[in-house]
């Protein structure tokens, strides 16, 4: 096992989501800088980032900031100035992609190499380590064996994604959005071409057929299911992973709370927690209850079938039953529910690309119901029975709440001129007259009760020790004032902790790995392969008529190339096929 501490890293779209991630048990949070954060829709002000730093510090939570787009020369100078501002407000690390930033005077902050740096090989990662990076975010496609090899040949911290949306291309190697729509994925404005529908064509531009004899027409052929490695955390630890990353800087508070809580519990069962904070949940975490496209471990144990969902790129949620088009009517849908499933008015349901909210139910048998959709639904009776999913469980969403507090010991004793109150590591002497209590038992109980009332702070009393030479009368208002004063001083002290500085050396441009894109570079390079997804890998079950092209709804044609030696698929513009 690694000598580095194991940490759970959560995403934050904004300040509110960042606080929710901390409350749910994250050890670290990553959030977008005002600019250049690889998510144009998830930039944050310096004031909000500073507020998140101050909220995180008492809990010992690190705040990492993304500056991970490719930059022009003018932008790099602005990014460096921004990096210094981030350093001064107390962030712990920067996540970057553009290696040319290393040729500038950067602040003494830890640098993490973004997954956009295409961190797939031990040679490349060793090179990044020599350049001064403290951590690399590994490519999502790596297997356990590949991670072990990297761990054996480098000493740098290794971070791996464990949950969330997947890019079908190697990160940093997708140029499709930029070339076709002028929106660069490496500049933070990906158009998500992988979530669009395509026709699958052979060499003669004829649509191929699926296993049911239907044309593969306007299917979501590149839309991967979501990553879920929750069953493999122990293997990842043993392979050398030190940071477990949840994807989702565009996700909402509900999603982040649910997923962080889910992985927090799993990690705490796996490795005894070294966190001093205590987290309480009002719900039982379940990944399928918030945004969820299904779950795959994505090459961690090798290539597996059914990596994509060709039916929809949207959240499907949890499977709750079967929709029977036969017997359904325009205002009533016939459904057989799985055992134990209860539906609620307002829940969102979907089957394939059909989606609707529940406006009521009518039970016909123990398991079969008629659902009243919120709007008129005409479902062709010729459709086959389809799995029914719930992608919005209103009862679960209302229950989502997490609370994080720091345990503190409280002691109270009398001094020659008054009383000394100690909360955590802060002690304060208060001058006050010693007035013996008329009712000793009641007085001691009052003192204990009032000093324990720290519920409006980030603390909770783990132990309360009253060490008085005798019972004294002290008004409740005075006890409350003393408690608030010491708690405030303790929280201020914890919030003012400083980060450890490190030294950066400017790197000459000539020592940086090449970042240029050469002519003929594929639009995408993927480990995911359509041939394998169709069950027709050339090595096992080759097709007579292979897919040759993808066609967008607007008629744009993309050429497919299968590199079986590397076990990769490439997408090209047709003139580079």
Structural class: alpha/beta
Number of strands: 26
Helix content: 10-25%
Uncertain runs with pLDDT below 50, 5 residues or more? none
Which geometry do the CA atoms define?
globular
The amount of beta strand, in percent, is 25-35%
Strand order of the largest sheet: 1-2-3-4-5-6-7-10
Total of DSSP H or I helical runs spanning 4+ residues: 12
Averaged pLDDT: 92
The span between the termini is 46 Å
Described by strand count, sense and barrel closure, the largest sheet is: 8 strands, parallel, barrel
Radius of gyration: 28 Å
What are the defining features of this structure?
577 residues, alpha/beta, 8-stranded parallel β-barrel, 6-stranded antiparallel barrel, 12 helices, globular
SSE layout:
Blueprint: E1 7-12, H1 15-24, E2 28-32, H2 46-56, E3 62-67, H3 73-89, E4 93-96, E5 110-113, H4 122-130, E6 135-137, H5 144-153, E7 157-164, H6 176-181, E8 199-201, E9 226-228, H7 233-239, E10 243-246, H8 253-270, E11 278-281, E12 295-296, E13 318-329, E14 332-337, E15 348-351, E16 354-363, E17 368-373, E18 386-392, H9 394-399, E19 402-414, E20 418-423, E21 426-431, H10 440-452, E22 459-467, H11 476-495, E23 524-526, H12 530-533, E24 549-551, E25 557-563, E26 568-573
Parallel strand pairs: 1-2, 1-10, 2-3, 3-4, 4-5, 5-6, 6-7, 7-10, 9-12, 19-22
Antiparallel strand pairs: 7-9, 8-24, 11-19, 13-14, 13-18, 14-17, 15-16, 15-18, 16-17, 19-20, 20-21, 23-26, 24-25, 25-26
Helix pairs in contact: 1-2, 1-8, 4-5, 5-7, 10-11
């Amino acid at each position: 096992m690694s000598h580095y501490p194991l940490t759970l890293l959560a995403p934050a779209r904004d300040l509110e989501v960042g606080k929710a991630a901390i409350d749910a048990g994250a050890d670290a949070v990553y959030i977008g800088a005002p600019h250049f954060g690889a998510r144009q829709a998830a930039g944050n002000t310096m004031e909000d980032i500073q507020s998140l730093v101050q909220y995180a510090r008492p809990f010992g939570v690190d705040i990492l900031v993304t500056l991970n787009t490719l930059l022009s020369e003018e932008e790099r100078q602005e990014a460096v100035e921004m990096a210094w501002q981030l350093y001064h407000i107390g962030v712990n690390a920067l996540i970057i992609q553009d290696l040319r930033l290393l040729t500038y005077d950067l602040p003494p902050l830890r640098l993490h190499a973004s997954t956009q740096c295409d961190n797939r090989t031990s040679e490349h990662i060793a090179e990044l380590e020599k350049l001064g990076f403290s951590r690399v975010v590994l490519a999502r496609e790596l297997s356990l064996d590949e991670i072990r090899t990297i761990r054996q040949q480098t000493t740098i911290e290794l971070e791996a994604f464990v949950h969330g949306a997947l890019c079908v291309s190697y990160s940093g190697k997708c140029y499709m959005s930029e070339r076709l729509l002028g929106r660069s994925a490496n500049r933070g404005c990906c158009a998500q071409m992988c979530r669009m529908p395509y026709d699958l064509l052979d060499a003669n531009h004829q649509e191929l057929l699926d296993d049911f004899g239907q044309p593969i027409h306007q299917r979501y052929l590149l839309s991967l299911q979501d990553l879920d490695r929750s069953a493999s955390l122990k293997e990842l630890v043993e392979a050398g992973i030190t940071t477990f990353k949840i994807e989702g800087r565009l996700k909402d508070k509900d999603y982040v709370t649910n997923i962080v809580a889910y992985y927090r519990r799993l990690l705490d069962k796996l490795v005894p927690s070294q966190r001093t904070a205590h987290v309480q949940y009002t719900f039982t975490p379940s990944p399928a209850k918030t945004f969820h496209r299904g779950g795959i471990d994505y090459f961690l144990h090798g290539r597996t079938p059914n990596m994509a969902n060709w039916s929809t790129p949207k959240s499907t949620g949890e499977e709750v039953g079967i929709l029977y088009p036969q017997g359904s009517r325009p205002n009533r849908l016939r459904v057989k529910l799985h055992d134990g499933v209860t539906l609620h008015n307002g829940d969102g349901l979907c089957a394939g690309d059909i989606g609707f909210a529940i406006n009521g139910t009518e039970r016909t048998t123990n398991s079969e119901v008629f659902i009243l959709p919120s709007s008129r639904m005409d479902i062709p009776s010729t459709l086959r029975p389809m799995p029914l999913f719930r992608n919005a469980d209103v009862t679960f969403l209302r229950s989502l709440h997490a609370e994080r507090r720091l345990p503190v010991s409280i002691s109270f004793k009398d001094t020659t001129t008054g009383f000394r109150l100690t909360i955590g590591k802060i002690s304060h002497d208060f001058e006050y007259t010693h007035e013996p209590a008329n009712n000793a038992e009641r007085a001691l109980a009052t003192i204990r009760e009032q000093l324990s009332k720290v519920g409006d702070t980030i603390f909770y009393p783990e132990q309360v020790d009253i060490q008085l030479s005798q019972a004294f009368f002290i008004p409740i208002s005075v006890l409350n004032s003393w408690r608030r004063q010491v708690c405030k001083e303790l929280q201020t002290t914890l919030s003012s902790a400083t980060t450890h500085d490190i030294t950066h050396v400017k790197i000459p441009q000539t020592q940086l790995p090449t970042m240029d894109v050469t002519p003929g570079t594929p639009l995408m390079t993927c480990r995911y392969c359509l041939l394998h997804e169709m069950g027709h890998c050339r090595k096992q079950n080759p097709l007579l008529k292979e897919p040759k092209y993808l066609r967008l709804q607007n008629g744009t044609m993309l050429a497919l190339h299968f590199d079986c030696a590397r076990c990769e698929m490439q997408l090209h513009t047709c003139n580079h096929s």
